[in-house]
Write a structure and sequence with these properties.
21 helices, alpha/beta, 25 strands, 5-stranded antiparallel sheet, 8-stranded parallel sheet
């Protein structure tokens, strides 16, 4: 493209600010709705001049930038030509002042640590096109530079320069994971912070989380931050200081709010609400209006997180883990819209590019909330892939979100979505090296591969249980040997080898195109929880590991009678004698009577770095589930059986029930007798009181994994 300085050539695109009355002697158009608000813009087509002109008009420098981004997003590209529908023009005023994302150059991202400066600039520029105005980095983490492709100082300084170049806010996240009650430690931390401020070319905001990481009482943290603000203002007078209440207990939260209401510190600019913070609603209500409130949404994780994937099948939770490729545009748009009226904007918590679509959705909803999710995705695929409407790529992307809703075995959308992406993959070979395309195609393959495995491996386990049911006839040893051979067939015969090969191919392609590390062993990822989907792609989706271990224990029993009794328990685990109903808590496919959800929607116990040999149902839990049974005969007595860990303080229709059997270990049972007198109009509501375990880490706290309703004999 040629940039001209006069009107002698066939210029069709003119870029101005609304305060400019003329551009090289030509009067700028008079607008009915002129962009005047900060960062607002308008695109105006003028066809009555010597040459048709498309005016990009911004209220300020950023407004001009977003006008250009609007043109690029809304245009269609074909045969080296760009087409723009002039009826798309209107004046846009962003609804949120802060629209940003954390792009921390650190090992845990499993992406950015292999990026060059040029890759960072391109990614930031692409985020700007979709409305981003703030970039947050993590410059002060204590990690050796030898582990990175480029030094931390080089990358972080470069990002600051990029923000200066594009007139973006440059922000940093600097947790204080040291003991601030020690004056010597405080002094060293101040020196460390000031050293960075001094050499940072541009700095607009400093965010210090109260915890996650960090464990300082606000009586130490707040005075320290007051001193930090003095260092900050020395080099960046207009920069702002933010704090979150992440990890604060009730007493610390009360201390904080009392402090700011009494002291009204002018050095504090605003509060950030992130994972582990008090709710946005509570914070907004208690926060004096002189302070800003910023959302710190986790858009990158799916379990054990702030906004977990809802109605997620256990098979996905076990294989994808916390950081898979997770485009969920409708889900995250709904979260954004719920909290946007209460905040002054957001800077998302992100650990790489697995959440790239979610970043775009958040930026666009903050820029132009009237733009629907489907329209945002349409702009996304047109801009990054150049596909046309008839290719239905946007529809295929939205279908990926639906793959994750509900039980995997009955979600036929997964196969439909896969075939859709297969057709797109074949019809767009020019996109094979586009990393965004690679991610989406990989998701389609991984989803359907996991579904096929789940169906196949569950069928093998059902067959193994039938074999175990014949143990009295064929003997316990033969039954265990044959049953184990049956379930282990999943290791010998891959149900979908071509899909498996494609997953390998795309994981490797993404490593080379974008530095995405999907495996600890193969690509040196920083940890198993950090998006290592290749390491868990074949994790058992039946109980073959658990059965193998149980058979080892059973084979050592002293009598055949004991062995047969144990094999009967294993074979009929979910449906023992007199079983009326069974619920695998938090398993969307097997919890028809559970009306509650855990904080993490699909809580998965993370044992042995994700390679637990426990029974699959044991790896799902809620701390205090609620179950509802209807239409029960009122003249019958019942037994409620519970498996889990620790205590199960059970209530039936609000009445506390004492146990008959009370084993606290995993994969043992607690049983409670419920007489017919507890049944109210055929309804039974089961709840669990919270035991006093505040002193325990959440991993050691009581959990409910399974609940049975048995008919009492």
């Amino acid at each position: 493209m040629t940039v001209a300085k006069d009107w002698k050539k066939s210029i069709t695109i003119a870029i101005v600010k609304s305060s400019d009355k003329y551009l090289y002697g030509i009067q700028t158009p008079a607008l009915i709705d002129e962009p005047t608000h900060k960062e607002s813009y308008c695109i105006e087509y003028q066809c009555n001049s010597k040459h048709p002109i498309l005016w990009l008009i911004g209220a300020d420098e950023r407004g001009v930038l977003y006008a250009a981004g609007h043109l690029l997003r809304m245009s269609v590209y074909s045969h080296k030509r760009m087409f723009y529908e002039t009826s798309n023009s209107s004046t846009i005023s962003p609804i949120e002042a802060i629209r940003g994302h954390q792009l921390g150059y650190r090992l845990s991202s499993n992406t950015y640590d292999l990026w060059s400066c040029q890759q960072y600039e391109q990614y930031i520029r692409e985020l700007v096109i979709f409305g981003t105005n703030s970039i947050e980095t993590i410059p002060l983490e204590n990690t050796s530079d030898s582990l990175f492709r480029t030094s931390k100082d080089t990358i972080n300084s470069f990002i600051s320069h990029v923000c200066m170049k594009y007139d973006l806010d440059y922000c940093i996240w600097t947790p204080e994971n040291v003991d601030l009650s020690d004056s010597n430690v405080c002094r060293k931390e101040l020196i460390r912070n000031e050293s960075y401020y001094r050499k940072c070319p541009k700095l607009n905001n400093v965010f210090v989380p109260g915890g996650d990481p960090g464990n300082n009482h606000p009586k130490y943290l707040l005075p320290f931050l007051k001193r930090v603000s003095l260092c900050l203002k020395k080099y960046h007078p207009e920069a702002n200081l933010w704090i979150s209440l992440q990890g604060f207990n009730d007493e610390e939260i009360e201390y904080f709010f009392k402090y700011i209401n009494v002291e009204k510190p002018r050095w504090l600019y605003g509060i950030v609400c992130g994972p582990g913070s008090p709710s946005i609603e509570e914070t907004r209500n208690r926060l004096p209006r002189i302070y800003k409130l910023r959302h710190y949404p986790d858009i990158t994780h799916c379990v054990r997180c702030q906004y977990p994937a809802l109605k997620w099948d256990q098979a996905f939770a076990l294989t994808y883990g916390r950081e898979p490729i997770n485009p969920q545009p409708n889900y995250y748009a709904s979260i954004h819209d719920k909290y946007a009226p209460l905040t002054d904007g957001f800077i998302s918590y992100s650990e790489g590019v697995n959440d790239d679509v979610n970043k775009i959705v958040w930026s666009m909803r903050g820029l132009e909330q009237s733009c629907s999710t489907s329209e945002i995705i349409s702009q996304y695929v047109h801009f990054f892939f150049g596909t046309q409407q008839k290719d239905s790529t946007a529809e295929a992307l939205l279908e990926l979100e639906n793959n994750w809703i509900g039980a995997i075995t009955s979600n036929f959308n997964i196969e439909k979505t896969f075939h859709h992406w297969q057709k797109l993959e074949k019809s767009h070979p020019q996109l094979k090296n586009n990393w965004r395309w690679q991610m989406l195609v990989l998701r389609a393959y991984y989803d359907t591969y996991t579904r096929k495995r789940k169906i196949y491996e569950q069928q093998l386990e059902d067959s193994a249980n039938l074999i175990l049911s014949q143990a009295e006839k064929i003997g316990s040893d033969a039954a265990m040997r044959l049953a184990l051979e049956k379930v282990n067939k999943a290791d010998r015969i891959n149900i979908a080898p071509i899909l498996r090969q494609k997953i390998d191919y795309y994981c490797d392609a993404l490593y080379h195109s974008i530095g995405w590390q999907s495996s600890v062993k193969k690509y040196n990822a920083s940890g198993e929880e950090r998006g290592c989907i290749l390491d868990f792609v074949d994790y058992p989706l039946n109980n073959r590991w658990w059965l193998s271990d149980e058979f080892d224990k059973t084979s050592k029993m002293s009598t055949e009678y004991a062995k047969l009794n144990r094999l009967k328990v294993l074979a009929t685990w979910e449906h023992p004698d007199n079983c009326l109903f069974y619920d695998d808590i938090s398993n969307i496919a097997k919890s028809p009577h559970v009306t509650s959800t855990s904080d993490d929607a699909t809580d998965v116990a993370w044992w042995d770095n994700g390679l637990s040999r426990r029974r699959l149902s044991t790896q799902l839990f809620q701390n205090f589930p609620i179950l509802l049974y209807r239409n029960l005969p009122s003249n019958a007595n019942y037994i409620i059986r519970v498996s889990g860990y620790g205590d199960a303080l059970l209530r039936v229709n609000s009445k506390r029930i004492e146990p008959l059997i009370y084993n606290k270990d995993l994969e043992t049972f607690k049983e409670f007798f419920v007489s017919q007198h507890y049944i109210e109009n055929g309804k039974l509501v089961i709840t669990f009181d919270e035991p006093e375990e505040s002193q325990l880490n959440w991993r050691q706290q009581s959990k409910i994994c399974e609940v049975w309703l048995l008919k009492a004999e």
